[in-house]
Amino acid sequence: MFTRIKQIGTRGKMVSILVLLVMVPAVFFSIYEFATLSRSEELIADVYRQQLDVVLYSINQFSWDIANSWANTISDAAAHDAVNHGNVATSITRFLDEHSGIQCIFVADSLANSANLFYPGSQNTKIPAITAREVTVSLKQQTNIIDRLFRLQESGYRKIEQMSVNDRTGGTSLVLVFVAARANGTGQIIGVVIDATRFIRDVLARKMQEAAGNNFLLSVSQKNSGKVVYSTDETLQGKARQIKDLWLFPDYAIGIRLRGQTIEEVVQARFYRNLLLIGLLNIVLIAGVWVVYRTIRHEVELAQLKSDFVSNVSHEIKTPLSLIRMFAETLQMKRVRSHAKKQEYYDTIVQESERLTRLINNILDFSRMEAGRKEYRFEPVDLNEVVNGVVRNYKTHLENEGFTVVTREEDGLPLVRADCGALSEAILNIVDNSLKYSLEQKYLGITTGIDGTTAFVEIQDHGIGIDPQQQKRIFEKFYRVSSGFVHDTKGTGLGLTLVKHIVDAHKGTIALQSEVGQGSTFRLSFPIITNAGNGRQERR
Predict the structure, then answer these.
(1) Per-residue model confidence (pLDDT) at position 390
(2) Which of 65, 239, 260, 518 has the lowest CB atom count within 10 Å?
(3) pLDDT of res. 522
(4) Any domain includes 330
(5) How far apart are CA 191 and CA 108, in angstroms?
(6) Which has the minimum average pLDDT: 115-129, 137-151, 330-344, 432-446?
(7) In CATH, what number is assigned to the domain containing residue 95?
(8) CATH number for position 412
(9) 99 versus 78: which is more confidently predicted?
(10) 443 with 402: CB under 8 angstroms?
(11) Section 8-25 average pLDDT
């Protein structure tokens, strides 16, 4: 019991140390990673959003640069209006034909004068949507814009303003209005009526395709209706993640999203991927801790078993030596008068000497096996003769212990190639176990037989049996069942280990059937010599 408590205490300390050294840092690392992971992904999302904002800004700036270049060209043409009006009209008309997205251009000296309208050559035969009257009315309704433009022009700065003009259909058209200086120094009002849809599709589309590349999807839609006017990829549909007003057209918005995945989806995928990696790392750490724990636990148990082994061997050696010395001294001092009593003492001395010899041989054999120096002399062997030899040599001891021995031999049993001494030692170790762990029903049955291509020997007892949970470990070196009567019975824990090693060396198998309180049956099976005739002749 004390040993068991000591083992539990050692394991508890070992587990505590492993937890402190590995698991606690792993837990803190995981918590830290979980805490920083969200912040990292938010930072990545912000970077993505900033990148999208840069793309939208570049497109807006491009559209405004187009408007400024148009204003420069028209201003240069309007500056020569006082010199040659006909050439100005020709220049503006040609400009309209060259630039898609412009419905018409109007020029007015002041709000009081009627405006001159210029249309593309392809529209000269059509009824215009905007007339000089609608332009004049709209200008007078938005005098604050015009006055501000004139003041800026007088200070040497030209600015483009956005305003609306009523058309013949009852709707409104977007107009870019600015004041251009003429050659005589006066200013005149110039308005560029833009077809927003055509401008977006014919002019802005190229810049949008360039900015989108293979990574983004750009689209322009009407703000009121949400109708998409243009998209860089009509086959892909999805909600834009970043939306900005189109500077040039206040009623339109330009949106952008990542092609294939949204920012949220990318960030979420990264989050779960990193989370999975952290989880796998923790699993590896836990597995490593478990392996280390199992290894250390095994070494601790082995060290404890070795300690118990030394204690048990000391006891096992001391007991027969004490008996031998006691009976020998009694005989030496001639205190025994009866011849029968003397013979009993002599038999006891011989039995204890044999017991001591077997114990020493087991230890030496185990040492050779551990060092890989154990050698076997293989020859054709009859299992019946091996069993008879063991029973004959151990008969006296079995009778003194009160055992009933029953042997059943298979007639004509085929030979096996084996080391006769090693097989005798294996059978004897199992018989010795039966003697130790049989309490009330002292029965020992030894049977030989054939099972397919193997010959076997079975050793059966009616002892205390072995718990199923411990049956797999009884062949481990130094291992002894640590409960009940088994724990109180002294032994080295090497007997069954030697049996397993001998059977394996003979390419045989060992099987166990046991129930607690019902006894145990060990079966040792060995390959039969295929040329049995030659084997028997060699044996004779």
Answers:
(1) 87
(2) 239
(3) 92
(4) no
(5) 9
(6) 115-129
(7) 3.30.450
(8) 3.30.565.10
(9) 99
(10) no
(11) 62
402 and 492, same domain (yes or no): yes
Q: State residue 125's pLDDT score.
A: 47
Nearby residues of 384 by Cβ (< 8 Å), 6 or more positions away: 409, 410, 413, 448
Domain end, chosen from 194, 213, 247, is at 194
Cα 387 from Cα 397, distance rounded (Å): 16
* CA angle 417–420–426, rounded 5-degree value: 105
Quick one: 87 and 59 in the same domain? Answer: no
Tell whether 103 is covered by a domain: yes
Burial 221-230 (b: 16+ CB within 10 A, else e): beeeeeeebb
**Token representation of residue 207:** 């810049």
Question: Does the pLDDT at position 531 exceed 90?
Answer: no
Give residue 490's identity as a one-letter amino acid code: K
Return d(Cα 426, Cα 190) in angstroms, integer.
Answer: 116
Last residue within a domain, chosen from 140, 172, 194: 194
The amino acid present at 42, given as its one-letter code, is E
pLDDT averaged over every residue in the chain: 77
Element (H or E) spanning 53, and its range? helix 24-78
Q: From the centroid of its chain, how far is CA 247?
A: 50
- For residues 423 and 365, membership in a common domain is answered with yes
Same domain? For 112 and 136 the reply is yes
In this structure, the answer to whether residues 294 and 435 fall within a common structural domain is: no
**Which residue is it, tokens 């004897």?**
428
Asked if residue 310 belongs to a domain, the reply is no
* pTM, entire model: 0.43
Cα 454 from Cα 526, distance rounded (Å): 5
Query: What would the DSSP string read from start to end of 214-253?
Result: TTEEEEEEETTT--EEEES-TT-----SEEEEETTEEEEE
Q: How far is CA 427 from CA 140, 447, 498, in A?
A: 123, 11, 10
Cα–Cα distance between 327 and 355 in angstroms, integer? 15
Q: Which long-range contacts (CB under 8 A, 24 or more apart) does 408-412 make?
A: 408/445, 408/446, 408/447, 408/448, 409/384, 409/447, 409/448, 410/384, 410/448, 410/449, 410/450, 410/455
Give the structural domain span for 92: 79-194
Q: Is residue 187 part of a domain?
A: yes
Residues 283 and 398 in one domain: no
* CA gyration radius, the chain: 53
Helix-then-strand count for the chain, H and E? 14, 16
CA angle 423, 425, 429 (to 5 degrees): 120
Total of domains in the chain: 3
In the sheet that holds 102-108, the strands lie side by side as: 116-118, 102-108, 187-194, 172-181, 161-166
Report d(CA 148, CA 143) in Å as an integer.
8
